[in-house]
Amino acid sequence: MTSLDLFRLDGQTAVVVGGAGGLGAAMARGLAEAGAAVAVADRNAGQAKLVADGIAQAGSRALAVEVDVADRPSVEGMTARVEDELGAIDVLVNSAGVTHRSPAADFPEAQWHRVLAVNLTGVFLGCQIVGRRMIARRRGRIVNIASIAGRIGLSGTVAYAASKGGVVMLTRALAVEWAPHNVRVNAIAPSWFESNIGDLIHREPGYAERAMRRVPVGRMGKPDELIGAALYLASEASGMVTGHVLAVDGGTLAS
């Protein structure tokens, strides 16, 4: 086996939850190019099908699955369908996410519950439901998409920050608990990326400029720049890595 072979996912099945979004779609394509059969799971069934069709046209096996990450029966149904059509799940990427910007003192409680339900409870449900099967087979890799907002304080993002901080600690707790079962759990913490959530910074006058001053490379990340991190954590290249939060942030945390 060569060093490049460590990154291959031939004969394996990967699920990217939130796979219709910019970051999720890029990671789904990257995992497919590494040899995996990929399920693109998302609440937006039409967009998920477009992403899956693109992967299939490029020569890989792909499946689009509609899922509501905050609903247990929906996640269970997604898991069962993927297993029926693509086989046992080797890699789970939890990439679904929403946000709402508002000062904390005026933050709507309904938005608080919505953000936590998708960003944290949704990740927990995916990890638990798919993780049980990985534990039974004594094999699996989980990659949760956190955020630098879960590592540093950012104003106007109280629910998003709380949810992503929760994802960081959920990742670490599961990594410790599931390591004896040969199930590795890691996270990626992006900074501002060109994505559905990242695009929100352009709606608030001056916010994009303030945000980019915190990023040493001076720009937003591109979705394809997340593929390498996802593939590393999803493959045997990171065989001794679990409980890690990999920042893909243009140097933001270092500054």
Task: Describe, in plain words, how this protein is organized in 3D.
The protein is α/β, with parallel strands linked by helices. It has a single domain (4-248), classed as 3-Layer(aba) Sandwich (Rossmann fold). Helices cover 41% and strands 15% of the residues. It has seven helices and seven strands, in the order E-H-E-H-E-H-E-H-E-H-E-H-H-E. It has helices at residues 22-33, 45-57, 72-86, 109-137, 158-178, 207-212, 227-234; strands at 13-17, 37-42, 62-66, 91-94, 140-145, 183-190, 245-248. It has a seven-stranded parallel sheet, sandwiched between helices. Helix 5 links the parallel strand 5 (140-145) and strand 6 (183-190). Helix 1 crosses helix 7 (227-234) and helix 4 (109-137) runs parallel beside helix 5 (158-178). The chain is globular, with a radius of gyration of 17 Å. It starts with 12 loop residues before the first strand and ends in a 7-residue tail after the last strand. The model has no long low-confidence stretch (mean pLDDT 95).
